[in-house]
Amino acid sequence: MTVILNSAAPKQHNEFPQNTQVAVDIVLDTAYQGIDEAAWKKLFAKARKANVTGFIADMFAGKRLNASENRPVLHSALRNLSKTSVEIDGQDVMPAITEVWRRIEALCNKWIGITDVIHIGIGGSDFGPRLAIEALAHVPSIDSRLMRMHFLANIDTAELARILARAQPHSTRVIIVSKSFTTLETTMNAKAVVNWLKENNCSKAQISRALFAVTTNVAAAKEFGVEENNIYPFWDWVGGRYSVWSAVGLPIALQYGFDTFMDFLAGAHAMDLHFKNTELENNLPVLMALTLLHQQEQHDIKSFAVIPYADALDWFPRWLQQLDMESNGKGVNRDGQPVKFSSPVVFGSSGSNAQHSYFQLLHQGPEVIPIDFIAVRKAMSELPEAQAHHRILLSNCLAQAQALAHGKEADKPNDCYPGSRPSNLLLLPELNAFYLGALLALYEHRTTVLGVLWNINSFDQPGVELGKVLAKPIEKALASHANNIEASTEIDAVTAARINFLNT
Ligand code: F6P
């Protein structure tokens, strides 16, 4: 072996975090980051200088940290099972949150005879529940009702057509999920599904029974035709990508039961308490953020990979892409100055499949790409083969991390592995609702800490607007069917030519 990143034997928990730390039973092992004691000290000094501790306290205290939108950042209140009061401008938000929990439980109890649920939402109104439904499907003790949960996000009608071909209209429920209730993909898909109900002879009364909404814009949901009793509110102090803990997570409760939804919240709440109450040196989200900062400073890294060795977490990288890149993919900091660092490109997929795809580049490509490996101690099924398969899954995960860290010398350049490729290992005891909640909250907080270290507001997303604005005149031009569109202030020459080509 040529390069040894960090050969120190793992230390005891709660010692200097050179290697392993545990929170909510989740083990973080940073041994392959190659960060020695002196480097950790410098990193903690940076965290102190950036006032990470003060930011965490302010966030839980409901300060308006989303400065550009003048909003608090309180998704943690949505899972505050301790029910301690959380105030915004002197008003406790917990009664409104517990009322939504009560309504979700009541809905679960009367959710009988439903064959299909169509959950319509996109981005933060889609990834979280979609990931949770997939991630928990393997848990044998979960009472999964015999109900199909369909997720409809894309404006492309391929997804819509696939769902409508399978759903039974008279026993379908439709949940329209949109923080703003103005997102075009969501409102157009919702209209299409309502039309499908009508075409299938559902009466007015049946349609109004079938429609549900989850939104901060209750007026718009009513205007759309959703009955007030079927609207589950959430609030503008919850970012869309942080909203799965609100009624946006309704599919989890409906599919797997209210108790499972509560377990999911409980795991996240346990991670919140860890994040809020633990000093920087033992704080998992802080440690994870600092490992990334270290690699940025050492290697100017531009990409970051997350590889869950759990097929059930295949949606996790896509969820994390929005969380990280929409939160921290910014060119200017909180003071309007150009940033030195912001979010790397996040990519990944479940292992071991990923090994047969882009791991070649991770091992021998010219760029250093830090990786978070996520592994689960307990096998994912009770099949006779489960233990043998799981051992191979875990051994592949450990082997990849080791190979990336140490590399290999060889006579031919082609056979050399440079090594010194850093990675974290996160080890979950098992993949159930509780640990899934804890895992997602861990990454949410990691994203927040990175935002603080980079002095970025992680809670707005102004960069998504321009494309939406430009799409409007382009759509109008496409609808005109004209093939002589000329360049204008709204449509440039390249795009005009493309429209003309499409319209020909
Ligand atoms: O366009 C990006 C975005 O605003 C995301 O931030 C959000 O998660 C998604 O669109 C959906 O928004 P909404 O929940 O308001 O429909």
The mean pLDDT is 95
If helices are DSSP runs of H or I spanning 4 or more residues, what is the number of helices?
A: 17
Radius of gyration: 24 Å
Give the helix proportion (percent range): 40-55%
Annotation, overall tally of beta strands: 13
Q: How much of the sequence is in beta strands?
A: 5-15%
CATH topology of the largest domain: Rossmann fold
Total discrete domains: 3
Order of helices and strands: EEHHEEHEHEHEHHEHEHHHEHEHEHEHHH
Bound molecules: 6-O-phosphono-beta-D-fructofuranose
How would you write the strand order of the largest sheet? 1-2-13-12-10-11
Low-confidence stretches: 1-17
The helix/strand class is alpha/beta
Distance between the termini: 61 Å
Subcellular location: Cytoplasm
Protein name: Glucose-6-phosphate isomerase
Keywords: Cytoplasm, Gluconeogenesis, Glycolysis, Isomerase
Enzyme class: isomerase
Describe the structure.
The protein has three domains: 238 residues, Glucose-6-phosphate isomerase like protein, domain 1 (Rossmann fold); 188 residues, Rossmann fold (3-Layer(aba) Sandwich), CATH 3.40.50; 40 residues, no CATH class. Helix content is 43%, strand content 12%. The chain has 17 helices and 13 strands. The strands form three sheets. A six-stranded mixed beta sheet has the order 1-2-13-12-10-11, sandwiched between helices. 6-O-phosphono-beta-D-fructofuranose binds next to loops.
